[in-house]
Amino acid sequence: MKTSFRTIALVFGREFRAYFATPLAAVFLLVFLALSAGLAFFAGGFFERGQADLGPFFAWHPWLFLILMPAIGMRLWADERRSGVIELLMTLPVRAHEVVIGKFLAGWAFTAVALVLTMSFWLVTLYLGSPDNGIVVASYIGSFLMAGAFLAISACISAMTKNQVIAFILAAIVSFLLVMSGTNLVLAALRGWAPAFVVDLVQSLSFITNFDRLTRGVLEAPAVILFLSTIVLALWINVQVVDAKKAA
Amino acid sequence: MQLVQASGLVKTFSRLRAVDGVSLEVSRGEVVGFLGPNGAGKSTTMKMLTGFLEPDAGTASIAGHDVFADPIAARRHLGYLPEGAPAYGDMTVADFLAFVGRMRGLSNAVLGERLAEMVERVNLAAVWNRPIDALSKGFKRRVGIAQALIHDPEVLILDEPTDGLDPNQKHDMRELISAIAPGKAIVISTHILEEVEAICSRVVIIAEGKVVADATPAALLDAAAVDGQRPTLETVFRSITGSKAA
Ligand SMILES: Nc1ncnc2c1ncn2[C@@H]1O[C@H](COP(=O)(O)OP(=O)(O)O)[C@@H](O)[C@H]1O
Ligand SMILES: [Mg+2]
What is the pTM of this model? Predict the structure, then answer.
């Protein structure tokens, strides 16, 4: 597959800047910071635990991301289709996968900015005590990978419609299912009737279960592979959707 | 070699056959006016010519490159103004044109020259550093033209370049198109007839997805002449495409 990294970089640059073209980026970053801090401190018992660790902070990330990543990804393609810019973009001498990758990386980099801002909490725990920095680093990597998986799914769904709101809702639903698939609620419901290997499969695909493993400080290969392969698969489908829309 | 070559293009949307076997050839130096009533299939045909939309049947090539078998090569020779002149509203004119130029592979040195030429030719100096969202319709349309011209392509496909412009702006746009025409193959869709007489060397009229006339404006008028009296182009257009037109 021929690939122009220059094209990817150009699309990346445009899209990344586009996030900051409106005050929405600042609002988003503030909401993310406030929510992740608020949930960790008040709902997560950050203080009561009397421990300097970021576990309660990371524990909320699957739930935060299942709303926030669709919000970051929804405009990537739906807006191009609504405004008609897609017609201009896809008649430039570029390949669909270059644009898909450039857009995804822009959203992912924006997510990285949000995560880097939360590192202020890390500084607080460093001040309060001595957190296990290995665990914190592994958790951040896990969080970033999981966010990427949610984002790739959101970008892919965004390519299917010209309506950002629909893109957001559909992506949030799919993300919700991926998070829920690891909860006891779902697993218990399955255990009643599904064969054991199905239960195991559903559990092994769960974003929560896999993310939990990473936040315990071990960069386990299966969890990393799950998130990375979700990204690759979703982006591959994204390319197919962009190509297929030519015929519609 | 014909710079634009299309044969037997067909496109059906659910049950509606929007384009029904359109063939078109345009050689260097020609400015073809692509005419037809609203909904005749002009934009759909152009989307297939540019490779944005895949035809159900037929082929299209730009500068000898098939737009589907060899899309990258075909698109290098093509400048395209889609219907409604879409652009990234959050970017300034300068940033947007630079982005398109770079996506088209222009080096920084060449890009600088081309941008300077666009400011001059398309008359964009007044809005150069303004966000596109804040521009008037006339300026947006000009940005769309500049975007299509940034790499000095051999083939230009312009979907209603003067739509929504005031008479002065229309005049400027026609002057611009005439000025760049030599050495290029240009297809302009419009339903404004004086446009055609002003700048087109050939007229292709389509109605309900089919080509119903393909001639020079003069030949078209001569053919419809009664007692040596040429009718207006509007009369010809109306009689060819049915009374709902123009
Ligand atoms: N994406 C689409 N889906 C369904 N119908 C379409 C689509 N695009 C165009 N059409 C229909 O095809 C016909 C031709 O449209 P178009 O090519 O835009 O005409 P024109 O540009 O000549 O006004 C119209 O009846 C239009 O409603
Ligand atoms: Mg049209």
Answer: 0.92
